[in-house]
TrEMBL record:
UniProt protein name: TTF1 factor
GO molecular function terms listed in the Swiss-Prot or TrEMBL record: chromatin binding
One GO cellular component, as annotated: nucleolus
UniProt-listed InterPro entries: Homeodomain-like_sf, SANT/Myb, TTF1-like
Organism: Serilophus lunatus
Family annotation (SUPFAM superfamilies): Homeodomain-like
GO BP annotation list: termination of RNA polymerase I transcription
Domain of life: Eukaryota
Amino acid sequence: LDLDTARQELEEFIPHVKNISDSSIKKMAGRDLTRFKQFKKQGIAVKFGRFTQKENNQIRRNVEEFLSISGIDSAEKLLFTSRYPEDKETIHRLKAKHEFCEKISEGIPRPWRLIYYRARKMFDPNNYKGRYTKEEKEKLMKYYTMHGNDWKKISELMSRSNLSVAMKFSEIKSAINYGPWTNEEIQKLKHAVKEVIKRKLEMEDTGSLPSLEQSKEDPWVDSEKLCQQLPWTEIEAKVGSRYWRQCKQKWNSILTKKMSKGQQSRKGIKALQSKIALIKRLHEMQLEDANEVNWEELSNALGGVPRTYVQATFYRIKVSYVPFWQKKSFSEIIDFLVEYKLPEFEEKL
């Protein structure tokens, strides 16, 4: 497929495909498009978000089966081939011969890249080594001075996973505050988010920028749906006293709190409409596990609100209206809401 056709066909399965680079589109067209179409024929939607226990088990089976048919003697050699330079050529040949890409993703309706990263996280023996010692933190800072953001190199030197060393460096590179957020920190966070969203708007829609600048309303307020794609490491640098994960969590909590107050202040038709729409969409998904819910997709379907707001709304509905909800499965909770509360909400509406 040519690039434009591939992007167009992938858009049916991946809503945010416009934000994906050309090189990634080419890879997805080869690795994923045929799989996605096969899943569609089976009535199975492509998924994102947190992996379920069922999917983790499927990845384990896929890896074990591939090791069996290929003769490669460990998952670490299969998934971290660069750690075994003497076997590298042989492993690459076996992976190509036995169609590694196809086998590792079998039965899992997700992009291949996400499945591969999940498998690496699950089977990396360096990923579960507990807390960093003082000596390890000092080594990490030293290696960063020598190698910069080459986390692959640093992870090899420290025998820790790429993700682990990158996140730990983010935590310790400056004086990080783990206590309650101060008003000054919250203002810095809001200002940082405003700056990056405004710049993103300018890059995406330069033609309409004059009207945005002249608008009485701050243009960033209308772009809350962009919160999931924000450059959090850049925001972390602007805030200064918190690492990126804290900034993301705090920003999501601010949005959720603001939107929840907005819902409470307009009780009545809109609040009922939101509850009805959320219950119906969750019921249509026919899922057994809350971990299978694509909250990102659901938040877009409900008007581009933050996913944390949708999750908080569902939690309030569950706690308020479902008796003994702690003892019920996710599907039982949804079935109860559809059978007993949905008709009541619709009648009120």
